[in-house]
Amino acid sequence: MPSGYDAVVNGAGHNGLTRGCYLAKAGLKVLVLEQYSEIGGMTISEEIAAPGFLLDVHASGYLVAKLTPAPQELGLAAHGLELITPDPNWAQVFPDGKALAIGRDLEMTVKSFAQFSAKDGETWRALYQSYLVAKPAITAGMNAPPPSLAAEFAGAAEVDRYRFQFQSVRSWAEQTLSRRRSGISSPAARCMPASHLTTRSARSSHGCSPAPCRMSASAWSRVACTMSCDRAKAVPLASGERIALDGVVASNVDPRHFALDLLGEATLGSGITERIKRYEWGSSFFVIYAALDRPVSYRAGAAGDSAGYVHAVGQKLDELAETFAQCRACLLPSAPMLGIINEAGID
């Protein structure tokens, strides 16, 4: 018996909501299902550490949030979304009391690099200026289908870009920088666009007004779509309700969970099942939420005190590499890298 929905989206995180909104904009009647009590995924804020302390549950930084047209196309500002760009965006504090700060002021950032190496300061200037030139192409590439491998190897410049995409941080640092402190080499590489963003509108993603789109908090115990002729025909809920449709069923869950737990070997076959069992996650963060009675003060001074995101790690890249190796071996790192979100400072 058809349910009246043209599409069902499994998972109401920010990606699932975005998918649901675009399907609705295309004129489909959409149902978005979510197990958790709140919708929004990585945009959710809750009182975790203590009453009155509103903290981001999953993430505080959205490094490429301004490089996608989705917020404008979906009119999220009208639903309360406000992206805050701290300045300085990011800082690395070292055990010797020094700090490297990366902000929106190019000269300030160059000066911060120069305290370790004047040459690296000028290298940063060149990298940032190169990024500004390449930014339109980077943005277009992020919002387009991936090119064919033939296009990726069309010429020397394309091959260099392909190599850069898969180059290790150590390789890039040794090729590019003269002083390879862990803070300069690793976090700086991924902060190159200086676009660390924080969202303070935890429930802004709830708006889905362009077309009919219903949100449901029905809990899924095993949300295994009933398959027929390689098409999803129904979605059973833990409550026993069965959502039948002859349209789109979109899943917004972890690929391994989706394949093995929700679909299962009977649907996928043994070949795909064995391959997905080799699906490998990257290293995780162990998170501690703290309710403090005053802002954090760093020995490194104002650079750490005012940054939205602070890294604390040893002086050398080898120490960061050892931490990574220990994590991959399922060991607690002996000298872990700390990522400190300064929400109080941003507020």
Question: What are the main properties of this structure?
Answer:
347 residues; alpha/beta; 4-stranded parallel β-sheet; 4-stranded mixed β-sheet; 15 helices; 35% helix
Walkthrough of the structure:
It is a single chain. The chain is of the alpha/beta class. It is 35% helix and 16% strand. The protein has 15 helices and 15 strands. The chain has helices at residues 14-25, 70-73, 106-114, 118-142, 149-152, 156-166, 169-176, 182-185, 187-190, 255-263, 265-268, 270-276, 302-306, 317-328, 343-346, and strands at residues 7-10, 30-33, 45-47, 54-56, 83-84, 90-93, 99-102, 198-199, 213-216, 226-228, 231-236, 242-244, 248-251, 309-312, 338-341. The protein has a four-stranded parallel beta sheet with strand order 9-2-1-13, with helices on one face. A four-stranded mixed beta sheet has the order 7-6-14-15. A three-stranded antiparallel beta sheet has the order 10-11-12, with no helix packed on it. Strand 6 (90-93) and strand 7 form a beta hairpin. The longest helix has 25 residues, at 118-142. The protein is globular. The model is unreliable at 185-229 (pLDDT under 50).
Largest sheet: 4 strands, parallel
Distance between the termini: 51 Å
Q: Topology as H/E string?
A: EHEEEHEEEHHHHHHHEEEEEEHHHHEHEH
Instruction: List low-pLDDT spans.
Output: 185-229
Count the DSSP helices: 15
In percent, how helical is the residue content?
Answer: 25-40%
Overall mean pLDDT stands at 79
Compute the CA-based radius of gyration.
Answer: 23 Å
Shape: globular
Strand content: 15-25%
Strand order of the largest sheet: 9-2-1-13
Global structural class: alpha/beta
Give the beta-strand count.
15
